[in-house]
From TrEMBL:
This is Uncharacterized protein.
Length: 345
């Protein structure tokens, strides 16, 4: 009897022991984490973000496999993946092998004009996992930081799911790579100085409470910007206006959403599922003492990967400050840019 009791105690102890979750379960939790942030963004940061018509499939890459959340029928027909996880509105499939050999992914993309492509005019978020991302972006140290990068890309998917906006991009913009503007800024000191001065005016407008002074700063900003574009066309033979306004709106708003998550994370309660499944999840400790002023890469062109990320981000902040209802219009009105809205102030 004593032996039987002892065996029962051992069995009970084993049953209660926390079993480490599999690598796949960690990935499932991370993908759910991405989608779980959509309601917060829709209610506090950008309206309509959580509407089903703006849902975007997400392909998660490990070093050996690809998993896709909420794929389209065309993707399912193209790759015949296996359903490996389902919870509520999230369905995750696993492809038998990695769908490409690109070592690192952090982008949202689609194919244009290829009816056989699974992503023909249909945006997909492509994201490497945290472990693979950290090999490339070495200053991130947690799943929470990684997820803000994924949300940045997911917001691009949200943008592209607006049909009129997508058509405008496909017809008028994507023929000129974003790198073209980045290289102009990096390789021409006169151009860099003028962009930096324009950005200083935006920052001054953000700091002042005088509407009269803000209006004066905006007027000067627009005047200097017009002069710079004219000089760029004369010196380089390149009319950058439409490209700059479009990429500034596209990337500036994505950075804006990303940064607003930093603010929300500063007082967000930890996710119990991630605590148990993901050792790279640090319960938002990185964001506890978050201060925007310390994150110069967000708002200074010289510290940013591409200058218009920063100028666009600052325009969005300025429109917020002036209580302009711009979020309801952007992407719904095709080619409308933040600069065009600023001109109406």
């Amino acid at each position: 009897m004593r032996i039987l009791t002892l065996l029962l105690l051992v069995i009970s102890a084993l049953a209660c022991r926390k079993v480490p979750e599999s690598i796949d379960q960690k990935i499932f939790s991370r993908i759910e984490y991405v989608y779980s942030l959509k309601p917060t963004i829709a209610s506090d940061i950008w309206p309509d973000f959580n509407k089903s018509r703006y849902d975007v499939p997400l392909i998660y890459y490990t070093d050996t496999s690809s998993l896709v959340a909420n794929p389209t029928k065309r993707f399912l027909n193209s790759y015949n993946p296996k359903l490996v996880y389902q919870n509520g509105g999230i369905r995750i499939y696993k492809v038998s092998e990695r769908i490409d050999n690109i070592p690192f992914h952090m982008a949202t993309g689609f194919t244009m004009g290829d009816s056989s492509a699974y992503d023909n005019y249909t945006p997909f978020v492509h994201s490497s996992g945290y472990e693979e991302t950290r090999k490339v972006v070495q200053d991130i140290s947690s799943t929470e930081e990684w997820v803000t990068m994924v949300i940045h890309e997911y917001f691009h998917g949200f943008q592209y799911k607006h049909d009129e906006y997508l058509r405008s991009l496909a017809q008028n913009i994507f023929s000129v790579p974003q790198d073209s503007l980045r290289d102009i800024y990096r390789n021409n000191e006169w151009f860099k100085e003028k962009v930096d001065r324009e950005n200083e005016l935006l920052l001054l407008a953000l700091e002042t409470e005088s509407r009269t002074k803000i209006d004066s700063l905006i007027s000067t900003f627009l005047k200097l910007r017009k002069q710079r574009r004219k000089e760029t066309k004369q010196r380089l033979g390149f009319d950058i206006e439409s490209y700059e306004k479009t990429y500034e709106t596209m990337e500036g708003t994505a950075r804006y959403v990303e940064q607003k998550l930093y603010e929300r994370f500063s007082d967000k309660l930890p996710d119990s599922k991630l605590i148990s499944s993901d050792t790279s999840y640090h319960s938002y400790s990185y964001f506890k003492d978050y201060e925007l002023d310390k994150e110069e890469w967000l708002y200074l062109p010289s510290k940013s990967a591409v200058y218009y990320y920063a100028t666009g981000f600052n325009m969005a902040r300025l429109l917020d400050k002036l209580k302009v209802k711009y979020k309801e219009r952007l992407f719904n009105e095709g080619e409308l840019s933040m600069e065009e809205i600023v001109k109406t102030l």
